[in-house]
Amino acid sequence: MRKKGQIDWMITLLPLGLIAALSILFFLLPEQSNTVLAKVRFFLGDTFGVYYLAIGLGVFLLSLYLAFSKYGDIVLGEQDEKPKYSFFAWGSMMFTCGLAADILFYSFAEWVMYAADPQIEKMGGIQEWAGVYPLFHWSLIPWGFYLVLAAAFGFMLHVRKRNRQRYSEACRPIMGKQTDGIGGRLIDLLAVFALLAGTATTFSVATPLMASAINALFHINLDRNAVTIVILLITCFVYTYSLLHGFRGIGFLAKLCIYLFFGLLAYVLLFGGQTRYIIETGFSSLGRMIQYFPTLATDTDPLRETHFPQNWTIYYWAYWMVWCVAAPFFIGSISRGRTVRQTILGGYGFGVGSTILSFIILGNESMGMQMAGKADFIARYAKDGDLYGMIIAMIQKIPCASLVLVVLLLTMIAFYATSFDSIALTVSCYSYRRLEEGQQPSKAIQLMWCLLLILLPIALVFSESSMSNLQSVSIVAAFPIGMVILLIVAGFLKDAGAYLKEIKKK
Questions:
Q1: Which of 420, 305, 354 is CA-nearest to residue 92?
Q2: In the chain, where are the structural domains located?
Q3: pLDDT greater than 90 at residue 436
Q4: Contacts of range 352-358, beta carbons closer than 8 Å, 24 or more positions apart
Q5: Tell me: the pLDDT tens digits for 26-49?
Q6: What is the CA radius of gyration of the chain?
Q7: Which of 20, 280, 418, 466 has the maximal Cβ count within 10 Å?
Q8: CA distance 294 to 297
Q9: pLDDT category, 223, cuts 50, 70, 90?
């Protein structure tokens, strides 16, 4: 039986209050607040860009070291313990918690956003590079963030059996008693604040696409905001129902999402009309990404000729760092019984592999139409800037477009619901001062967070400027989060090293 005193209301309500206050401020003073945040965001990205890039590359290289060194043999649990979930169930939950429905939006559209960028022309052209950068920005380094921290959190939860499921607890090997003081409280407040800010803006990217798909599917022209709110409410119901049924519900929804996702990819690949182009261009883009990976990962554009790293790569790394508050905790919790090596390499195999397939198939389907002269998506985007309408136009050129739209809608709802399952579960754990091994947050706390996580996006759906501002808040929050990530990594290496010595003595 959980006592009321176990709830940490400061960690629970203060970040939420700050986000709500900022939302009101952004709504009442959109121009002034946007100007201030844009300046702060530009300062961090332009002046400290190397900071974000160095952390991203460093974490990726560390993931390889952990996987192939002595640390890779550590079992996240008892030494002879077997994995709790099958590889497919584990991979499905991991992939869907780490990437919301945004992956479908960006898979279709990202190459178009790069196509007119001076960087693409400088590097060699659309055919050579427009399909490379999406693979780079969504594969190895992003998943490196997730998997290194997942190993650290899994070690903390299943090996050291810590009963405080928080960012600060992972810093304890370095911070010591300071973890229970002001330093630890600040880390946890920052983590929940960043999580809520990132969560509140996630729907801003893909839900308008879902609304546009519904309008196109039923040949209607309903108000996009009204349709978006209905979609948000349906998604909230799905992920709340799933979460309250525990990991069994989350696992079922994740596997359903994966079936829909790969079914969509298979249909587009086989029947979209661009099969040969998709395979050949995708193969070339993947090879080019691997060949030029060190260059792409360290490009700072010091003369600011195109500002591409500042506009895209640094932005992405910062956004992934903010999302590291929730996804790695969930991945770590479901990785019980796996070794650090299995967690990292399995994560790269399932997570990166699925992500790359999505961008190669969906992105090259439309880029193939563009290069063959069957459509001009670049000109359309340059004319009206409507990415959502452009994606619908892309899909409508695929045979049985209505079927594709239905599967797209169902997949996006499943993606969002599964992602928010993991977020709601993580933030529910944050609400407790202590959670013993195997203990879950009460259903009342989980329900509270399920509702709170959806209210802010609904409140903000009417104000595009507010969404943009909150995205900037997320990016700004990534600056201190990066420092915390370094603390967690250092703490994991120290504690795991000590653990290996303990095992040797036995």
A1: 354
A2: 4-500
A3: no
A4: 352/139, 352/140, 352/143, 354/95, 354/258, 354/261, 354/262, 355/95, 355/99, 355/103, 355/138, 355/139, 355/143, 356/135, 356/138, 356/139, 356/286, 357/265, 358/103, 358/104, 358/107, 358/261, 358/265
A5: 777 777 877 887 788 788 878 889
A6: 22
A7: 418
A8: 5
A9: confident
* Residue whose token pair is 């693979």: 135
For 222, other C-beta atoms within 10 Å of its C-beta total 12
Which residues have a Cβ under 8 Å from the Cβ of 32 and sit 6 or more positions away?
none
Residue 504: exposed, middle, or buried by beta-carbon count in 10 A (0-12, 13-18, 19+)?
exposed
- DSSP code, position 352: I
Q: Is 30 exposed, middle or buried (0-12, 13-18, 19+ CB in 10 A)?
A: middle
| pLDDT for position 208 | 82
Q: What is the residue type of 317?
A: W
CB 399 within 8 A of CB 273: yes
pLDDT at 461 over 80: no
432 forms beta bridges with 7
Counting Cβ atoms within 10 Å, is residue 40 exposed (0-12), middle (13-18) or buried (19+)?
middle
- If you average pLDDT over each of 149-153, 195-199, 450-454, which comes out highest? 149-153
Contact present, 206 and 101 (Cβ < 8 Å):
yes
Side chain identity at residue 505, one-letter code: K
- Name the token pair of 397: 């050129």
| Third-level CATH fold of 4-500 | Sodium/glucose cotransporter (1.20.1730)
pTM: 0.91
Report the alpha-carbon distance of residue 10 to residue 12 in Å, rounded: 5
CB atoms within 10 A of CB 493: 17
